Amino acid sequence: MTVQAFYPIGIPGQPWGDAERAEWLSRQVRHRSFDAEVRGKIEGLGSRFDVVQYGELNYGADSYPLLAIKSRDWNGELPTVLVTGGVHGYETSGVHGALEFVDLHAHGYAGKVNLLVAPCISPWAYERIHRWNASAIDPNRSFRDDSPAHESAALMQLVAPVRDSVLVHIDLHETTDSDESEFRPALAARDGKPFEPGEIPDGFYLVDDSEHPQPGFQQAVIAAVEKVTHIAPADDKGEIIGSTVVAHGVIEYPLRKLGLCAGVTDARYKTTTEVYPDSPRATPAQCNAAQAAAVCAAIDYALAHPQG
């Protein structure tokens, strides 16, 4: 069913202009601190890893360094593993799951892979618990040439020198109840389209690349995460968030065509994780652990099957 949901900005059926975007921006409130909760943890890892600043966001009076973590003993003969989190700033376990992986597990891959981890791609949105950046743009639809999102363009520049050596890219996300209550209605209002209600799946799932699927890889990640938290079942239509379930806990998108972060390289093994933090069956600690487990499983499978 298609309905016109009320959203307090704009005129139903008309895309936002500058005035509506400015009104939206004026309503955004800082709820948490990037410096205290994220930057400090990243910099604290500097005794064991290289911490690099690959850009800076400037939104009005607010500025944020864009920080990445790299293997200290980078070896050009080894494959690269790219881990990204916080493309959508409100998806908390994407950020803290990436940091947990580096802190607790990354040392086990020294001498096996080069690690490049960008744990919080959208720090402005992290502080405001939002999906978009300050320009009301979704960075995770903006990983393409001439990107309108500074967050996306900066990550693409960071990755460019190692793009051809990336064997694994795992992009850490969440699907939350607020997707349905706030972010999808806001998207419909911004674009002047009717809101089409959907269902939020209860559990973890993955998004494979429909143009280059790797079903064995996806199932290896699912099997590892299932030891930490539950996997989302298909709905009555055999779908998760409107996409056909192709295997236990797995759907597919054309990653590059949609401008998604997981499509920024030609890595043989690509996936997007989706944790469900609002489930009564999952705690924040479990969500972070599920993300870290997914990264480990992804690397382990790739190392065992380097040629596919």
UniProtKB/TrEMBL annotation:
Source species, domain of life: Bacteria
One family name in Pfam for this protein: AstE_AspA_cat
Coiled-coil region list: none
Keyword Metal-binding: yes
Domain Peptidase M14: residue ranges: 30-308
Cofactor(s) required for function per UniProt: Zn(2+)
Keywords associated with the record: Hydrolase, Metal-binding, Zinc
Keyword Heme: no
Family as reported in the entry's similarity comment: Belongs to the peptidase M14 family.
Listed name of the protein: M14 family metallocarboxypeptidase
Organism: Lysobacter arenosi
